[in-house]
Structures are given as C-alpha cells and as structure tokens.
Design goal:
The protein is mainly beta. It has four helices and 18 strands. The chain has helices at about 15-25, 190-195, 280-290, 375-385, and strands at about 40-50, 70-85, 90-100, 125-140, 145, 155-160, 160-170, 210-220, 220-230, 250-260, 265-275, 305-315, 320-330, 345-355, 360-375, 400-415, 415-425, 435-445. A hairpin with a 5-residue loop joins strand 2 and strand 3 (about 90-100).
Amino acid sequence: MRFAFIPSRRLAPLQGLAALALALLPALGRAETPVPEDWNAKFQATYVWQDKRAFPAAYSGGNSLSPDKQLSYSFTATAMLGWRPWSGGELYFNPEAAQGVPLSGLTGLGGFTNGEMARSSGPTLKVYRARLFLRQTWGLGGGQEAVESGPNQLAGSVDQRRFVLTAGNLSVLDLFDNNAYSHDPRTQFLNWSIMTHGAYDYAADARGYSWGITGEWYAGDWVLRAGRFIQPNLPNQQSLDLRIFQHYGDQVELEHAHTLGGQPGKLRLLAFRNRARMSRYQDALDLAARTGQVPSIDAVRTGVQDKVGAGLNLEQALSDDVGLFGRASWADGKTEIYAFTEIDRSLSGGVLVRGTAWGRGQDSLGLAMARNGVSRVHRSYLADGGMGFFIGDGRLNYRPETIYEAFYNLQLAKAAWITLDWQHIRNPAYNADRGPVNVLSARLHTEF
C-alpha cells in the first residue's frame, strides 16, 4: 500500500509510530478494508530541547559552530485537515505554528542536529500555512489495497495499479526519499543527514516547503514518480521564485518492493536536477585569484546554473521488530548549496528496533551513523577562507564529517512519547581542527 508521510518543517515525514508499527509488522496483515473517510483531522506537537557540550577548537570563523556550551530548543504544532471533494480526489490543508532558537544560528555543521529546526526559526511563535494541496487518484485495476487513516491520508481503498497526481503547496519530501525506518525527526532520528539524503538539495523555502506537481504510477511492486517544484529567489530564503519553467527543481524516483529472507523491503533510486541563479565555486575562486580578495559566492551569483545529483535508498525488515536502512547520495558539488545543507556526498545507515522483546511494544530504539563530504572545488573554496551559507571556518583542515546518533523513544501515554537522543559529531563542517562535538537531546511528541 501507499503510505502518505508528512515531513517536518525542514525534512522528513510524520506518520509517526503508526507508520513504524505498520512497517515493522508486515506479517500481521491488514485484510479488513477501513471504512472510507470523507474527511479527517489530525494533530501533532513536538518540542525538542538540545544541549551542545563545549568542545576543543584550534580556531573559529564566521560560520563556525560555537565551541562553547549552548542550549537550543524548537517547537512545532501542526493541524492536518483532509477532505474528499469527489471520488478519487483529496484536498489537504495544514496550518502550522513554530518557534525555536538554533545552535550557533544554524551554522557550523553539514549534518545539523535537529530536523525540526529551520533557518526561519526564531524565539517568537509564528503561524503560517505549511501545506495546501490536491491529490487525485485514477484507478487502473489490479485488485484493491487498503489505505489507513493518517495525517494527510484519508482511509479507504485504492487500486494496486493506479496513477496519482499531487499538486500544490507541500514539501518535496512528502513524496520523495521516503523510508520506513529513518524519515521522521518527530519520532525517529533527528540529524538532517540521517533523516534524508544529505546531498539532496531539494527545492524548498527556508521552512522546507515549496509549490509544485508530482505524478506517480503504481504497478504492482514498482512505483515511478516524477515532480517539479519551484526554487527560492535566493539561497535558503523564504520567498519563492514562481517562474517554474525557468528556475525549478526536478526529481525522478524509481521504487521497487521486494522480499528478502521472507521479510519485506524497498529500494529507491533518485535523480534530481536543479536550475536556478546559483554561484559556482570555481568562479568565486577565479575572481579571488584576479583580485587578491577572499573568495565569495555572493560576488559571482550572476547566471543560471544547473546542479545534478542522485541517491540510493534501502529499507529492509530483518524481523517483525527490527528494520535497517541505508542511503548513499551524491551531488556534483560545482555550485553553491541552494535550499538544503552543505553536503555534496553522504553515506548513512542504521537500525530501528521495536521494544517488544522487553515488553514495550510502542517504544523504539535507534542506532545510526552518517559520513558526509564536500566536492574538491567546494573544499578549495572553504580552505581559501570562503563562506558558505551554513559553514565557513576561515580555513580548512579537511576530513569527512562523521555523525553517530542513538535514541530511545519511550511511550508515556496513548498519544505521547518522550525521546532521549545522543549525537556525536567528528570533524564538524569537515574540519579536523575542531571537535569532536556531543549533543544531548530530549524530545516530547504527541499526535492524534
């Protein structure tokens, strides 16, 4: 069946523990078709508190992670309202409120520590429209499968062979790079480069949303989806460029469901192409060589450039209670980071375990790691003192950024969970002269 995951403000989805249970319990079956819904209303709220410990640093620059002890928090609350205006049609509206104070002004890392934190975060609560989109499904036969009620998903049944068109205001990650075990910072891993492809510079405003259209074709074990979304007017800014035929982010993803050792899994292959008014690192280096100044991407943002990239995404159940995931992503690294984070290559993987073995079936334990890097020209730009949007220490002793994350998600009540999370980061912002960094987190989450 198709699960409609709802990403958080910056990244990944929010089907929460319901999705985890469905993913980890394939053998139970869901033969009964849910009563079709004409409308539904869901709600979530998530608070994340983080404590970054002091760490050693030989030097710091304008966009360095502060070496001092720091505290950070984020809060989001989202209402997810769905309505079926006609057969096959679904209309969704998500008002959202958010506030937060990031670590170091959200600078100094490739893989940031809180997927609920966005560049637009601030200490004042802001209310805005997160999503407003229409989904239309055309059945093509092949038998029926059930769709459970969930956030931005109306209960009912759909044909196994079908075409789905989704258009409007939403996140690219609502539709692309899904993974049952690592895609939701509200219930799973918090780090940006573990929740999704680190090198996937997907089109989004500073909150992680955009406007666009995606078509999906379902045929048995195969799904093919393709979509186009608009880019921000300037890198990582809130205002969006409406010229969808001139500046855009395109992506195509092929998904295949399989069975390995009697357990279900999925493999997804993603390719993306961005077209926007972006700076090239080599242009900044060439200008600096001619003028004797420090290279700056802001000085060479003069023409439309293309960026291409790809990603491979695996999810695999090992038993009814254990699942693993892995991702590998690559971007050409020639142009500045435009809408996500400063990563050009990334490998990540981990395991998610449900607490059935110790009598806590609604709890979960997660262990993961990520290894992030930047392209050679990107390194040269940083080593010569250049500043990116998120990183820049003034110079660079390059090493890949390596992140370890572990969490335990404890159910407090029927619709409430608390998570304790630890992240250990070596070579923050790819600099061996700084770190390692330890970040402790506590997350409170409710959904109903």
